[in-house]
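Protocol step 4 of 6: structure prediction from sequence.
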Amino acid sequence: MSADLLASEIIRAKRDGRALSRAQIDAFVHGLAAPEGAPGRWADSQAGAMAMAIVLRGMSAQETADLADAMTHSGRVLDWSARAGSGLHGRAQAGSGLDGPVQPSSGLDGPVLDKHSTGGVGDKVSLMLAPMLAACGAVVPMISGRGLGHTGGTLDKLEALPGYGVNPSQAQLLQVLRTAGCAIVGASSDLAPADRRLYAIRDVTATVESVPLITASILSKKRAAGLQALVMDVKTGSGAFAANLPEAQALAHSLVQVATAAGLPTVALVSDMSQVLGRSAGNALEVAEAIDFLTGRGPRDARLLALTLALGAELLLLGGLQPSLAAAQAVLQHSLDSGAAAERFARMVAALGGPADVLRAPGLGSAPVQCPAPAPRAGWVAAIDVRALGLAVVALGGGRAHPADSVDPRVGLAAALPLGQQVAAGEPLAVVHAASLASAQAAVAAVQAAYTLAEAKAADAYVAPVVLQRIAAG
């Protein structure tokens, strides 16, 4: 091996702000994906140092594209091109031991579509959107992740359902897609394995907020899943990794540019994350809210509905299932109102080992301590530190401080007040669900500190539209 491909030299090059060659990037990715004890495997400390160097020094557009491509091909890459006649096939990086087709299976029809969010607090859109798209004729193999930093993870949410399996076999995945049209699952160990390892390292090394790393992480999983079209929800605001609009725009442009150049049609919507999306944050609480959303039990949160419809409409248009965004939104709304989306969700959950009657008996546990976080004074909700709310959920046990940490699905925040809401002194800003009185008290204090109350309501000063910008190729 030449000296410039040594781990220490690659780290040094990026630390000093130099552009990495494709060979150096390939060596880094190989070091992430190589099995324990194999030649060339990078230690966690080296991978963490490299991630920090990228955060501090950045990457060019070419480096970012090379990193995304190398991570995509670090394991199996699915190919759905023959799905109508012979089902799902797969191919893998040469020499990985995964070469050759997956066992053929018939019965999959419709464009293969997916959505991905850059992460927010209370973002449960995937839980509703996947079955809505399936009810509208799409096939949705949604490869999702776990919590990252202060944001919740879709897999952690679904694992709040007893028995739900996020790592199905290839045969089971195909069966779920045939019967439900959607399957929200984790990346298998042979699908973008380099990202699987780097994702966990970034979560605990303060290296999440990086446009190149986020771009490569997302697109490696999505391209490996063999999609035909992708829509990105790039969040901005106090609860997002991109805290301001220019950062979110830069990430959205990076995602669209790299994905489109790689042959994956992609549209990005920049969305507002200056308040909790919906009314809950926490795994079981968000699943319960999603089930209520799908079944129409109670009013649907207006911002949550608007964002879900907007993202879904882009995908139905990209997938050729609808002629216009307006028509696409109409059929998506009908999938909710008719109960078709709820039925697809129930089929998916049951097929993946979850409750057989999830819409009526989801089996979600409840936290033993539930207490309100009272407003210290009367006023109007003028600002929310949403990141602080997400960290409060993590501190309750709803997220991870270390990769090996277990997650308590019962804990979180419910009935979180939105921006512009009037509140009397002593009325709850949110309801804390906790495993102990001590953790509940700490969360109450965190919620109170996260909310800024004004004496008077300023007209239209608090609430931005949930979709701020649409970014497409060209």
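Step 5 (inspection) to follow. The domain at 76-362 is CATH 3.40.1030.10 (Pyrimidine Nucleoside Phosphorylase; Chain A, domain 2).
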